[in-house]
Design brief:
CATH class of chain A: Mainly Alpha
CATH superfamily of chain A: ACP-like
Order of helices and strands of chain A: HHHH
Oligomer: heterodimer
Number of strands of chain B: 18
Low-confidence stretches of chain B: none
CATH topology of chain A: Non-ribosomal Peptide Synthetase Peptidyl Carrier Protein, Chain A
CATH class of the largest domain in chain B: Alpha Beta
Mean pLDDT of chain A: 91
Radius of gyration of chain B: 27 Å
CATH architecture of the largest domain in chain B: 3-Layer(aba) Sandwich
Shape of chain A: globular
Number of strands of chain A: 0
Amino acid sequence: MNRAEIFEEVQKIFRKVFDDEQLEIRDSTYSGDIEDWDSLEHINLIVAMEKRFQLKFDIQEVGELENVGEMIDLIERRLNGQ
Amino acid sequence: MIEQLEYPFDSGELLQRKKSIKRELLKEENFMDKRVAILCGSTVGEMKHMLELFLLGHGIRPAFFEGQYNRFYEEAVFETEKLAKFAPDIVYIHTSVINLHGFLEPGASKEEVEEAIEEEFSRFCQVWDKLLREVKCLVIQNNFEQLPYRLLGNKDVYDPSGKLYYIRMFNDKLYTYAMENKNFYINDLAYEASSYGLERWFDDSMYYMYKYPFAVDAIPGVAFNIANIVKSIYGKNKKAVVLDLDNTLWGGVIGDDGVENLELGVDTPSGMAFSAFQKYMKGLSKIGITLNVCSKNDEKIAKMGFSHRESLLQLDDFISFKANWNNKDKNIKEIIEELRVGENTIVFLDDNPAERELVKKAIPDIQVPNLGSPESYVRTLDKGGFFEVTVLSRDDIDRKEYYIENKKREEHWTRFTDYKEYLKSMEMVCNVEEFHNKNIQRITQLINKTNQFNLTTKRYTQEQVQNFSEKEENITFCSHLSDKFGKNGIVSVMMVRVCRETAFIDLWVMSCRVLKRDLELAMFDYLVKECIKRKIKRIQGVYYKTKKNAFVENLYEDLGFQLMTKDDEHSTWEYIVLPNYEEKNQVMEMRKT
């Protein structure tokens, strides 16, 4: 799966979780950009991504995520076994 | 119930789509409103949202009070008033094994461990006692699941200082408490955890990061279980099963294969699967679920299936038996009529997806699980939670007998042309009884599950019923009805509030099993005589219209009440009590115990 494909899948998850079919995310999107993006929904995003990409993030990795771009980078790295 | 909430649901979808699913659910009407407080020992988070979805799915709309993180003890014991002010119908205590702290060091003696358990248990008892006695609500408490790690290995479970030993003993005490306390229910979290798989259940990173006590993905399953307990308490369980025959109750098609070639019993793997399913069905009928048949077959041939030597089920296990060539939706509608239950109390089981689809479309409120292959029938039914038992009353166990007797009654009926004569011939005895400890459970159950003969559709907890009846000026009574075919148990309840010279009928319900027997006349006679005795001058009543209680729309008028006010939703009525009252009931004997 390349970065664009991962981005597509992450976009789908965001749309479901925030109940907004029009939502367009960008690499720079962060919690301040989406009204409902609180800590509870943040966990939901993480859990949904773990499920979708069949991986488990480390505590340290999750703690360092600042925005959507970093999430996608992390997923890409993990999928490529790095 | 929308399909996404039915077992086996997709937890991930529920968590991600909770907002749109909730919107969908709220389009329904006629919710039962309940106030639910969640006290917690860890993060509640999605638990609340998932519980909300499943409750809405059962037609219960919750208003929540969410306790603060890990303050279940303090909020129950020291801030009781604040909680009482919210007036919860139910308090759910969201704790799990991470909230047990009394474990001792390896090598501790049995006595030391017992003492530690007692100490920790009494802390929990304080919480429950406060809630049951002061907040006066129902309490749902999780039991405690096993731990993922075992310091002592296999010995952990039987060495007194082992943590698994501690958990087991602690749970034992919890079960004893539940047996001894009404209004206290256990959510079997330990079962849910094993069923989910302990390996996946404990998600350490989720706990360390967010204090979620178990995997987020397991939350919907736990909420599903709790919602099942709640809907069962409020009378929303399923009551009857309608079964197909060929390839549902046995393998093969009886009309083609012949009874001797059906797959049933230990000779073949599928035969074993069908036998297991029959056994489960037999069990269901023992806890008061009525079994019925709806099959496309020739009736005579269909019935021969039960003469198979391995058939556990016998013809007399079924109440209604429809084997013909009509469409199934038509047959099921007839069964519903015969049983006098709501569409939403039926589970239809058929191996054929086309039949399931047809019935689901024609009767939207009916529950139609996707059966899968024979070896999974029992699982689908069991995990569906349709028949969650919260009270196993004698009445449930006897319910099948009632229906059978009712059927006899109907056969008997046809010989009479005059209905009053028929009623007289039934040798009915109405036994009036006051509320007391032994009958209050059944009374509450009847109040909460009766829809047709129900004038006000008020729902009360056992506590509320008890408080009402303990006020000396109030008139409360219930009646048993027996006839020449058998006993019906407690079938009607009246709760009347008295204020000086006026009696207000607060609630009057009657089981659909005994409608049209003139029991309402006998009950009213009793009420009037009570009023004369107490020098009460008038009786007032109100009728609140619902979707299901048109049956009693004219009850007050028929009893001789005068209309006082009326609008779209309700009407109020008054009856003047005269000393020379003439009894209305002419068909049954009245007794008082």
